[in-house]
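Annex B. Sample input.
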Amino acid sequence: CKASATIALRTLLSMDGIDAGEITYVINSGEEAVGERYQRGGGNLGKAIAEMCGCTAATGADVKAFCCGPVHALVMAGALVNSGVFRQVAVVGGCSLAKLGMKFRSHLDKDQPVLEDVLAAVAILVGEDDGTSPRLRLDSVGRHTVGAGSSQQAIFQCLVSEPLDRLGMRFQDVDKYATELHNPEVTEPGGSGNVPLLNYRLIAAMATLNEEIARADIPRFVERHGMPGFSPTQGHIASAVPFLGHAVDRILAGKMERAMFLAKGSLFLGRMTQLSDG
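Annex B, continued. Sample output.
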């Protein structure tokens, strides 16, 4: 987990010609915990990754939220920069062998080869407004609250409808929705279905309830505002952030104006609660 996140951050710094010494905070958003027999999940992988990348002026911490971790971390990074606490914050997330091919049995049962052979990792740099790069909107962050309930409609109401309402926007004002982008070639044989397609249909259905589009226009809405799943299915990696680089490129090229990043997650895996997350 540490090694893959380190490679991602080193790649980011190298490709963009960024001085590692300019990074002042590193947030690790990977799912895996670090500890020993007295302290099972203390971390701090964020600082360990900063050390490996030569970010000598940085400190850091870990943000744990299963699949939602990177999006939680992006909001925190944006807030830290916007408040002036730190100028440059890197959000990273690696992956471990424990998550690789974790559902391989269902594939082998159907005579399908194990396709999950990539240790995916992510590195995102959040900095001050340079007048060119896309801006992270902090004025209407989606929040799946404790009292919202765990139905799909409640989750999408909190994470899509309400943030748009606060900005006076319509569903079609978002060029692309980045949701759980699991590759259906992996998930469908395993019995999990086409996760991104289901999410896009739910968003389109909410647009019909809002009387923005007709029911017959749902397929067109999905095609225009959604995308095929293309990500490895390893938890936090698949949830929205794989599209971030593509969104930045499209916005800078003038091909797109805005994207919404929508992560959903399981909080109940540790048996501490029955709540969902988003």
